[in-house]
Each structure stands twice: as structure tokens, then as C-alpha cells.
Specification:
With 392 residues, this protein is mainly beta. The chain has two domains: 114 residues, SH3 Domains (SH3 type barrels, Roll); 250 residues. The protein contains three helices and 22 strands. Strands 8-9-10-13-14-15-16-22 form an eight-stranded antiparallel beta barrel. A five-stranded antiparallel sheet has the order 6-5-4-1-7. It has a two-stranded antiparallel ribbon with strand order 2-3. The protein is rod-shaped, with a radius of gyration of 40 Å. The relative contact order is 0.12.
Amino acid sequence: MKVKINKFFGLLVAFSLLLLPDVNAQEAITKLRVVSEMANVRLQPDIGSVIIHQVAQGTSLESIGKEGEWYLVKIQIEEEQEALGYVHESTVIVTERPPPVKVETPVKKEEVTEPEKKEEEPQIQPIPETLPERPPFESRLELWFLGGGNYVVGGDLNNGAQGFVDFYRDYHSIEEEFDAKPVHLSYLYGGEFSIPIGSNFYLGLGVDFYRGKRESILELQESPAIEIRTYPKIQATPIRLFISYYPVRSFYIKTGIEYYFAKCQYYYRYEVDTAWQVSEGTAKTQGSGILGAIGIDLEMTPWMSFTVEATGRIAKISGFKGNDSSRDSDLNENNTSGTLYFYKAKGNADEPYPLLFIRTREPVEDILISDPRRAIIDFSGVSLKAGFKLRF
């Protein structure tokens, strides 16, 4: 593709030719070929000099000299009109060099070997004249701050709340269906740091904190008035060790193991007219799980990125120990320390009701209780987080 030169550039080229050194017609000519998509021919051997012509890829040129990194070439601007200009060595390759200049001192044949000739004629690798794309960030310490939402399964904690409601609903022959609201959603925030351990791989340590709760109330304004209330709560602080991998610059995948400092609470209230009874318990334990995550890392500055990450967890934890406090409207109170158990209690319905309580020892299986075991709180779930990553 040719670019026509207006009158101003024509005068400029003509004036510049007067300033160029006299070129001997017998001067050795180096033949070139354009390898870039479009080579700029400039007035002076300088990247800031004005462009007087453009030459398409594959075009052959003849150079009559070289100044630094610039070849002085002949170009044909219009029919029967030639000019001299400069092209950068990164946009062309040498296809034919001038014959070597003969010297008076003869050189022995054995002194000029084939390998030496190859060293004297190195291949010039094409380098784009345009500015290169900014290289990826250097591997270094990374510090993350993330926050968002979390979903957990809940397991026996939610099943126990539903069983408590169903037990008293059937006890009073309440036909109205009622689902105790399970605790699933919670807020989440945390942070982590990681260090490079290889090409595109990082080793990191992180911690999260999340807590969720959900209250359900079944009220019947009948005679007698009945109220059934549940209020399960869940809390965890998982510490994780992970490896992340960047297949491309702005996307990563992550896998690792987690160690949980877990806590759960239950609250049951049953009230008939003015009589009521309450049971509430808090239990804690520690356990392990695994995680997998994918994320998008959008670089804002060389030292900071905006990150969005989706994480999946598997963590079913048991062995909760804690205290239960039971009291009623007759001022009776009972405090129990022990283990969190899950079992099924028989009532008016054909199917037994799942219940969750802290007891000093495991409930004994009899005609009223079946399938007693240690409660399993399921912290498995997914989370979506967003935040900022700092690089040092």
C-alpha cells in the first residue's frame, strides 16, 4: 500500500536529500525484504522523524548505506520519481549482501572456515517496530482481601429444627404445613497471601470467617394459643493451605485443604397459652475439609488487581461439644454439658422426628428413640467473593 506525499512533504524530502551525504553510484548495495506488516520509511534515522512513505510486507528494497540501526534505502514515490529514506532494521531482513571488499594482504584459505563465515553473517530476527505489549507482572508476594456471600448445607442442624416443629405440630394435631427455615446463607470475609513456587504456580495460606442464622415462628391464634419457634445458627473460621495456577494472565484455578474452627447453636421454644419451655445449646469443634475455586484477576495497576472468585467446599464435621440450657415457665432450669447428638423420636405420626440436642451421654435406643449418633453439621457449600489483591 503506497501513501501519496503532499506538496509539503515533497519539498521536505527534496530539501532533506540536499543534506544527505553524497552517495556514490558504484557503492555496494544490500538487498532487503520487508517482514513487518507495514514498514515506515522515515526522513531521518530517528523513530520520531516524519514518515515519508510506507512499504508493504514482502517488498524488496535496496540499501546503499546504514546509520546505526537504520538502513538508507531508495524508494520510488511516484512514476519516475525516486527518494531516499530510512527504515529500521527490525522491519526488514537481509536477502543479499554486497561482495566482501578485497584486501591487499592475502588471506590463507584455511584461516577462513565455514563456521567463521556463518558467524560473520548472523541472521537478523525481525522485531516489530510498534511498542510491545506490556509483559506480565513479575512473580512476587500477593496479599488478598475478599468479602461476599456464602451458602452452606447445614445438615443435622436444619433437620433438628424441622423435627422439633413437626413433633409439636403433630402433638396438637395441627394440619397446617410449616417448614422451619433452614440456615444456609451467610456473609463471608477473609484474606490470604501467596508466594510464587514456579511458572504460573503459587502457594498460599488464607482464612475466612462466616456466620449465618435463621429464625422461624409458627403462631396459631386458637384456643389454646400455640407458638413454636426455632433459631439455628452456624459459624466457622476455616484456615486453608492452597495452590493456585494461572493458565492465562487474568484467570486462575485453586485447590487446597481447610481446617475448621466450627460452632453451631440451636434454640427451641414451645409455648401454649402462658406456659412455655426453652432449650438452647452452643457447641464447638474442629475439623477438616477440601476446597476448589476459580477466579478472574483483573489488573488495575502494576501492584493492585480486582478479583472475583467462586469457591466450592466439602466439609462434614462432627464431634461438637458444648452446653445446653433448658428452662420453663415454672422456673425450672437445667444445664447440661456434653456432646451434640442427633436421633429420632417417636410421636403421634408414623414417621419418627429428627431431633438435635446436647446430652451428657449418647441417648439409649428404645421404643421412643432410634438411630442415635453424633451430630454432623455440613459446612459444605459454595461462596462468591470479590475484593482486591496487592502485589509487593
